[in-house]
Amino acid sequence: MSASSRRSRFSNRLRLGLMVSVVGFLVFVLGADPGLYGLDRSPPVGFVQIAVFLIGLAIICVGGYITLMTLWEGRERSIAADIGLRLVSTGYVIAVASGMADIFGFGTQPLPAVPYFGPWQETGVLIGEAVIGLGFLLMLPFSPPRHKEKSPKKKHKP
């Protein structure tokens, strides 16, 4: 594979990951504050809003994964990067479990009542997001990429 096609593939994957992250952010904001898009219909945060911002968070995680794994191209991933990937997944599970606690049946409001996104659920989602952020930090490559060294050309003696 030529160097220009490798660079092109690298930049295309990087762009894709960043675009997916931006789309995820827009979906996340739509769920977190629909009033920014002129869609706010009620003051309390309901099930649909919680589901939309958790879907947006999932899209952000996928976009971040694509972007950061692109930066590792041509290198073996470190143990810290593997741990970071697992922390991103764990953080998302924490955020979903906290955000959907009333729906899953272990929140403060039993299910016949309207789901309530209270301070405990908010704290749990923020903790999940912090774990995701820590995972992304661990996934960053801190060493420069290794380039294949070309063997020196043999000089022919006349």
**Apparent shape:** elongated
The count of DSSP E runs of length 2 or more, i.e. the number of strands, is 0
Total number of helical segments? 5
Low-confidence stretches are: none
C-alpha-based Rg, rounded: 22 Å
Helix content range = 55-70%
Q: In this structure, how is the largest beta sheet organized?
A: none
Distance between the termini: 35 Å
User: In oligomeric terms, what are we looking at?
Assistant: single chain
Number of domain modules? 1
SSE series: HHHHH
The portion of residues forming beta strands comes to under 5%
Indicate the mean pLDDT.
84
Report the structural category: mainly alpha
How would you describe what is shown here?
The chain is an all-alpha fold and 158 residues long. It has one domain. It contains five helices and no strands. Helix 1 runs antiparallel to helix 2 (47-71), helix 2 (47-71) runs antiparallel to helix 3 (79-99) and helix 3 runs antiparallel to helix 5.
In brief, what are we looking at here?
64% of the residues lie in helices and 0% in strands. The chain contains five helices and no strands.
For this entry, give a set of tags:
158 residues; mainly alpha
Topology:
Elements (H helix, E strand, L loop, with lengths): L2 H30 L14 H25 L7 H21 L1 H4 L14 H21 L19
Helix pairs in contact: 1-2, 2-3, 3-5
